[in-house]
Specification:
Shape: globular
Strand order of the largest sheet: 5-4-6-3-7-8
Radius of gyration: 21 Å
Mean pLDDT: 84
Distance between the termini: 59 Å
Number of strands: 8
Length: about 290
Amino acid sequence: MAFRQALQLAACGLAGGSAAVLFSAVAVGKPRAGGDAEPRVVEPPAWAGAARPGPGVWDPNWDRREPLSLVNLRKRNLEPGEEELTSRLDHCKAKATRHIFLIRHSQYHVDASLEKDRTLTPLGREQAELTGLRLASLGLKFNKIVHSSMTRAVETTDIISKHLPGVCKVSTDLLREGAPIEPDPPVSHWKPEAVQYYEDGARIEAAFRNYIHRADAKQQEDSYEIFICHANVIRYIVCRALQFPPEGWLRLSLNNGSITHLVVRPDGRVALRALGDTGFMPPDKISRS
């Protein structure tokens, strides 16, 4: 009986895994002249893949690392026995917890025409120092710092890393700022070209898939990783990790130099321990630009 139930669960896990990109068309009431609500359908981008499960339904295979979805039950002509299946599942199970610290870059010169000139302001440099001190005070053994290749993120990383000696730094274009998905509700002051959502959205989704997942089965100890990037990227990642509607990313607000802490358990469950924390900064050092 247990073996038969395991096979049934495997089928469910594989089916759920096909919906790893959790986008759905969202109908939003939009008032008409007469006062009635006219649904506005937000179509998912082409790269988004299959639709997500219904609201409130947790997909345990969101990162495609659920053990039952990793075991190839058809690899051999004969179905594996219960003991063999259990052994193979144990081999694929994550054993460690990942602590992911998402840091927004510090305040920068927003009016510079070229990206390379959008350097940190004097206040921004102070903010990065405070964030570095805060991370160091946690007393954690950080494994690595992954940062966006944009100037403001690189400078923020350089300052923070001084407080975390010995922690390796890795630069990536995947974490660069962009427009992840059309926000709902929309805002009037920020309207990128539609093509930007497809270009940036696919890249930011790739960043999520690449960096946000449960620990590898070979990882024996809990890990503590820092990702220094941008507000839009962090807000989108938080929505995706918690399986909230990703179109709601713009409803979240993050201060410069803030710390967002995600925890990914071995069973794939995700918890948000902090969102945009800047409680370690004096009030006159806090900004959101």
